[in-house]
Amino acid sequence: MSNKSSAGKKGPITKREAVREKRRQEQKRKRIFIILAAVAAALIIAALLIYPSFRPVGEIITITPIERPMADGRALGDPNAPVKIEIYEDFQCPACKNFSEQIEPQIVDTYVATGEVYYVFRHFPFLDDQAVRKESDQTANASMCAADENRFWDFHDILFANWNGENQGAFSDNRLVAFAESIGLNMESFNQCFDANTHKDVIDADLQSGKDLGVTGTPSVFVNGKLLTPGLVPSFSEISDAVQAQLNQ
After folding, report:
1. CA angle 30-34-36, nearest 5°?
2. Bridge-based pairing state of the strands 83-89 and 117-123
3. Model pTM greater than 0.85?
4. Sequence-distant (≥ 6) Cβ neighbours of residue 164 within 8 angstroms
5. Sign, CA torsion 60/62/68/70
6. What digits encode the pLDDT tens for the residues 44-65?
7. CATH code for the domain defined by 75-247
8. Among 30, 31, 40, 180, which one is most buried in terms of CB atoms within 10 A?
């Protein structure tokens, strides 16, 4: 008499095995959910990055370039002047817009044009640190490409003329290119420079130097290396007092 082998036969699923199987299925569903969520997030980020490039440029406020004394790249005045003013700015900063339109011209007319002050713009792009679109970084990038044609200050002016808030799309890449075209830059040279982010090292060096000097916000104004009114925007009167103190030494 032969006996049939029980090999290969499965017995009933135990309660423990059922629990394990249920856990495996739950873990599988979680992994699928995580993957789908990551893909969705990546698509959303990609859309946010790409959309501004296809969005219409919109209205651009044009400027009339103005003469500035001894403009050289992002500096003004005599590099051998007895007083040096360095200002750290982010082009997206509303206080920087106000400073550049109201206080800066007084400094230039009163002290730079007379040869007493050498005035230098420093980049401190930080307002886009938590944003998807890097408008602060890209405005710094574009302005330095304009500086290659000694048109930094014209680009500086058209940026502030078209400011409308932080990380709102006013300084999307296609608008920055349109600004360059508006002021008559060589677009072949500008586009090559802008696309390659040619001056990234210079901008990064400015940012790091600002951090090393204790800059935490913009605009931050230094007179012969001394930070004025930390945490506050200095008035023209305060800057003038600091300059006069240096001139009187």
Report:
1. 115
2. parallel
3. no
4. 170
5. positive
6. 554 455 555 555 789 999 999 9
7. 3.40.30.10
8. 180
